[in-house]
C-alpha cells in the first residue's frame, strides 16, 4: 500500500515537472516570437520612414474634382506609372500643372483587380493621338509638358473613363538604381540590337544599371520603333517584379533596404501613396508572384500622319472604350484573355 502510494506521488511529481518544462518552452517561444515581431515591426517602420523621407511628394497630382470620373463601386485599384525623360523640369513644376520640358517617355496604367490575384500592366504608346483637355489633339505624352502631372492624369482618366487612385513618376535613373540594387536584372531579349554603347544579343542575359537604362529607352534600333521599346519595357518591369517578389529578395532585409534607399530619390508619388498605403497594398498582394503579372499594350490602328504633319500612332477608339469598360467593371482579366494577340 505504502509502496503504491509512493509510486503515485512520484508519477505526479514527474507530470508536474513535464508541465513546468512545457510551460518554460512555450514561454521561451512566445518571448522569441515577441522579439521577432518587435524587430520586424521596427524594421518596417524604419523602411517606411526611409521611403517617405527620400521620395518626393506630388502635391497636386490629380485634376480638379469636377473633371474626374466617379469612383468605381468595387475595390479594384488603378495606378498611373509615368517614366519621365525630363532634361531640366522639376517634379514640383510638373506637380503644379505648369508647362515644362518634361514629357512622359513611358505611360503604364496598372490595374489591380479587387480579388488581388493578378496585376495588369497596360502600356500606352507615347505617340498615341488623343484629345488633351484644353489643348486639342496631340500626342499623349505632350500632356505632361503642356500641363504637368494633373493634365496627364486628366487626359488618361478622360480617355478610359476610369478614376485613378494613385500616380507615380519615376525618373529613368530610377530604373538604373533598381537594377543595381537587385544585383542585376535578368531579361530574355526578343530582338537583338545595339544602342548607347551596349549590345543586346537575342536571349537571356543579366543587365547592370547602365545596360538596363539603354534597354528600356531605345527605339531607333527597331523597325517598329516605339512598339518594340514598349515590349522591352514590359519585359524589364516584369523581370524586376519577379526578382523583387522572389523569396531571395523578400527574405533579405539588406537587399530590400538597399532597394528602397537607392530607388526612392528617383520616385515621386501623390500625397496618398505613402509608406502606409504601399504597405497595405503590398500586404493585399502577398500571394502574387511574377507569373501573375500580365502586361500588354493598348491596341492601336497603326501609325499615321496628323494634319500638321506629325508622325503619330492612331488611336483605336473601340479598343479604348472596351478596355475602359472592363476596368470599370473589374473584368479586365476577361478582356485580356479574349485578346491574347495583344497581351504578354
Short description:
46% of the residues lie in helices and 22% in strands.
Explained architecture:
With 344 residues, this protein is of the alpha+beta class. The protein has a domain at 60-170 and 292-338: Nucleotidyltransferase, domain 5. The chain has 11 helices and 15 strands. The strands form 5 sheets. The protein has a 7-stranded mixed beta sheet with strand order 1-12-7-2-3-4-13, sandwiched between helices. Strands 5-6 form a two-stranded antiparallel sheet. Strands 8-11 form a two-stranded antiparallel sheet. Strand 14 and strand 15 (311-315) form a beta hairpin. Helix 4 (173-181) packs across helix 5 (209-217), helix 5 (209-217) runs antiparallel to helix 6 (226-244) and helix 10 packs across helix 11. The protein is globular.
List keywords for this structure.
15 strands, Nucleotidyltransferase, domain 5, globular, two-stranded antiparallel ribbon, 11 helices, 46% helix, 344 residues, seven-stranded mixed sheet, alpha+beta
Amino acid at each position: 500500500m505504502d509502496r503504491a502510494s509512493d509510486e503515485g506521488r512520484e508519477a505526479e511529481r514527474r507530470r508536474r515537472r513535464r508541465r513546468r518544462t512545457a510551460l518554460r518552452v512555450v514561454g521561451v517561444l512566445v518571448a522569441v516570437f515577441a522579439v521577432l515581431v518587435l524587430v520586424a515591426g521596427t524594421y518596417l517602420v524604419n523602411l517606411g520612414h526611409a521611403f517617405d523621407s527620400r521620395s518626393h511628394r506630388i502635391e497636386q497630382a490629380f485634376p480638379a474634382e469636377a473633371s474626374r470620373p466617379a469612383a468605381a463601386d468595387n475595390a479594384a485599384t488603378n495606378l498611373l506609372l509615368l517614366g519621365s525623360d525630363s532634361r531640366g523640369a522639376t517634379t514640383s513644376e510638373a506637380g503644379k500643372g505648369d508647362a515644362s520640358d518634361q514629357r512622359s517617355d513611358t505611360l503604364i496604367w496598372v490595374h489591380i483587380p479587387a480579388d488581388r490575384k493578378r496585376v495588369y500592366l497596360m502600356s500606352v504608346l507615347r505617340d498615341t493621338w488623343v484629345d488633351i483637355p484644353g489643348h486639342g489633339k496631340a500626342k499623349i505624352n505632350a500632356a505632361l509638358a503642356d500641363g504637368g502631372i494633373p493634365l496627364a492624369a486628366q487626359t488618361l482618366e478622360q480617355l478610359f473613363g476610369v478614376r485613378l487612385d494613385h500616380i507615380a513618376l519615376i525618373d529613368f535613373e530610377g530604373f538604373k538604381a533598381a537594377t543595381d540594387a537587385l544585383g542585376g536584372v535578368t531579361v530574355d531579349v526578343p530582338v537583338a540590337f545595339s544602342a548607347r554603347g551596349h549590345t543586346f544579343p537575342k536571349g537571356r542575359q543579366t543587365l547592370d544599371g547602365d545596360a538596363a537604362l539603354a534597354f528600356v529607352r531605345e527605339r531607333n534600333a527597331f523597325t517598329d520603333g516605339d512598339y518594340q521599346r514598349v515590349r522591352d519595357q514590359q519585359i524589364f518591369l516584369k523581370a524586376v517584379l519577379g526578382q523583387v517578389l522572389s523569396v531571395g529578395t523578400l527574405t533579405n532585409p539588406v537587399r530590400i533596404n538597399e532597394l528602397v534607399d537607392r530607388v526612392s530619390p528617383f520616385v515621386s508619388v501623390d500625397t496618398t501613396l505613402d509608406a502606409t498605403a504601399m504597405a497595405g497594398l503590398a500586404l493585399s498582394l502577398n500571394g502574387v508572384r511574377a507569373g501573375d503579372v500580365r502586361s500588354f499594350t493598348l491596341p492601336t490602328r497603326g501609325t499615321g500622319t496628323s494634319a500638321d504633319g506629325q508622325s503619330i500612332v492612331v488611336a483605336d477608339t473601340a479598343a479604348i472604350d472596351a478596355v475602359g469598360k472592363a476596368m470599370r467593371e473589374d473584368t479586365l482579366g476577361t478582356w485580356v484573355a479574349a485578346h491574347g494577340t495583344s497581351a504578354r
